[in-house]
Amino acid sequence: MKPAIRQTAMRRSIYAQLALDAAAVAVELWFFWGDGANFVPVLVLMLLSAANICWLGHHYWNDCKQFMTSEAYQRLAARYFSYGSCGRWLWMLLQYRQIKAVSDEAGLALLRIWMAGDILICMSMLGMYLPAELILG
User: Fold this and answer.
1) Between the CA atoms of 123, 12, 45 and 54, what dihedral angle is there, to the nearest 10 degrees?
2) Most buried residue, 60, 64, 89, 117, by CB count within 10 Å?
3) Secondary structure (DSSP) of 31-98
């Protein structure tokens, strides 16, 4: 039986990224119709998106603690969650296959949600950068 994991803390990062995307669209429209365009607001939004990736990793940690069995969580925490928030995100990304092999069903569902969130944020960052480069470049 698959675990029903719908409302995770990771959704907050998705909502934050949607807000950053809306701000990026507003800034790029301002660039397109305005005269005083520079790359600083887009750079700030991209840095906030990078911080959002770290925040997503932090939420992944909390969701694992909430939804996984204690034994599976302790097994993952001892080996893979030993760094700070940004270090944890990078370590989890590099060790994705190992985490997938060690996780229980709830952990696999959370891992899929986490990877989908990371992909969404990375694509959003690309969507912020390319139009700004085309407008300013």
Assistant:
1) -80
2) 60
3) HHH-S---SHHHHHHHHHHHHHHHHHHHHHHHHHHHHS-HHHHHHHHHHH--S-HHHHHHHHHHTHHH
As a whole number of angstroms, the distance between CA 45 and CA 53 comes to: 13
- Write the single-letter amino acid at 105: E
* CB neighbour list of residue 86: distance below 8 Å, 6 or more residues apart: 54, 57
Distance CA 128, CA 106 (A): 33
- Report whether 115 contacts 121 (CB < 8 A): no
The sign of the dihedral angle between the CA atoms of 76, 78, 83, 85 is positive
Q: How many CA atoms lie within 13 A of 85 on its CB side?
A: 12
Per-residue pLDDT tens listing for the chain (137 residues): 455 566 777 888 888 888 988 888 888 788 777 766 677 888 888 888 888 888 888 888 888 888 888 888 888 777 766 655 555 666 666 777 777 887 888 888 888 888 888 888 888 888 888 877 777 66
Q: Rounded to two decimals, what is the model's pTM?
A: 0.77
